[in-house]
Amino acid sequence: MSDVTVPPSDSRAKRNVTVLVLAQAILGAQMPMIFTIGGLAGQSLASNACFATLPISLIVLGSMLSATPVSALMQRYGRRAGFFVGAGAGALGGLVGAYGLYTASFPIFLLGSLITGTYMSAQGFYRFAAADTASDSFRPKAISYVMAGGLLSAVIGPQLVKATSDAFVVPFLGAYAAVVAINVIGATLFLFLDIPRPPRPAEDAPKGRTRWELLTTPRIAVAVICATVSYALMNLVMTSTPLAVVGCGYETGDAANVVTAHVLAMFAPSFFTGHLIARFGVEKIMSIGLVILAGAGIVGLSGVNLEQFFVALILLGLGWNFGFIGATTMLAGAHEAHERGRMQGLNDLIVFGGVTFASLASGGLMNCSGGSAQQGWTAVNLAMAPFLALAGGALIWLVLRPRDAAEEV
């Protein structure tokens, strides 16, 4: 549904995908870095240990607040401009965070986290940028390949943390300095992007649907619901996992291994998710993703042996991959090019709003739902049920309702 003519070879799209995969791997490495050390750094600065994870929540909040303006910027000036702004915000956020650590100021550190959220928002548009110049047949594969770049960032980020965290006397200061360097160096990748700037609409050109009209379009509504549920539930359970693993008597290293297995499961399937969508259809892959997420909750409720944590978190990652990439593919094919900035910004505003709520709720469910870590873990997994029912019901409704040819992906 784009006004850009794409050659059958998809040569331009493949070049852009290569650039975006590298950006996901290199620039994206800052996110596992910050998510690994943000809570620990916050714990060292906060006067109350209850606020230790507030830096992580503020990153997600910053992403939610900046999604709409970043998308509007890209709609007007092109993807490259938006990605440069994102990298600049990542560098500034890392610099402010480093200064907060150096001066032992928790408020300044939190400000750096909020600014970093703008980078996180811009990174979320890599997947949409991959679809901009792709043909209908290559689109799901392009989105999937870019998401697969997260597998590399999941390996690069933790290794950089190990190499830089103790580089200075102030703990974690070296890691935040590395974040600044990653953004400055990684931003040069965007010089090689070849995505046409959206054409300026003529005075008599169609203005496109309003935000309300877009959201009430069946395929868009279901895509947004499924993306939000997949991402928010993944964040809800993942954030609680280290607390649950350690609280049930295992070592911190065991918790790290469980989270590593989860992250690998999130991104490794991306090498073939696009092919599965192209072959079986986006609705089937999304439904499988929701079923797998439900399976993660069932395993989580079945017990707290270490292997049960591993299986639950691997299923959680796999379910997120199918559900989120499927929803992104559905959304990318459900709006016109001139509606792109409005719709994609609105989508990420809603998605990261859900993720912000989940990240804030995770600690409360884990720590305030009973007298033991096992009771808290049970509450977290039970909380998945109503949201999975909402997304599953919406997807079933979409599949069963009659639809016009214009609604096809």
Describe this structure in words.
This protein is mostly helical and 409 residues long. The chain contains 17 helices and no strands. The longest helix has 30 residues, at 218-247. The chain starts with 10 loop residues before the first helix and ends in a 9-residue tail after the last helix. Mean pLDDT is 85; it is low at 1-7.
What topology emerges from the helices and strands here?
Elements: H1 11-26, H2 30-45, H3 54-77, H4 79-102, H5 106-124, H6 126-132, H7 139-164, H8 173-186, H9 211-215, H10 218-247, H11 252-267, H12 270-280, H13 282-302, H14 306-332, H15 340-367, H16 373-382, H17 384-400
Helix pairs in contact: 1-6, 1-7, 2-7, 3-4, 3-5, 3-15, 4-5, 4-8, 6-7, 7-8, 7-11, 7-12, 7-14, 10-11, 10-13, 10-14, 10-15, 10-16, 10-17, 11-14, 12-13, 12-14, 13-14, 13-16, 13-17, 15-16
Uncertain regions spanning at least 5 consecutive residues: 1-7
Helix content: over 70%
The Rg value, from CA coordinates, equals 21 Å
Report the span from N to C terminus. 9 Å
List the helices and strands in order: HHHHHHHHHHHHHHHHH
Beta-strand fraction estimate: under 5%
Mean pLDDT reading? 85
- What is the count of β-strands? 0
Structural class, please?
mainly alpha
**Approximate shape:** globular
Helix run count: 17
Largest sheet: none
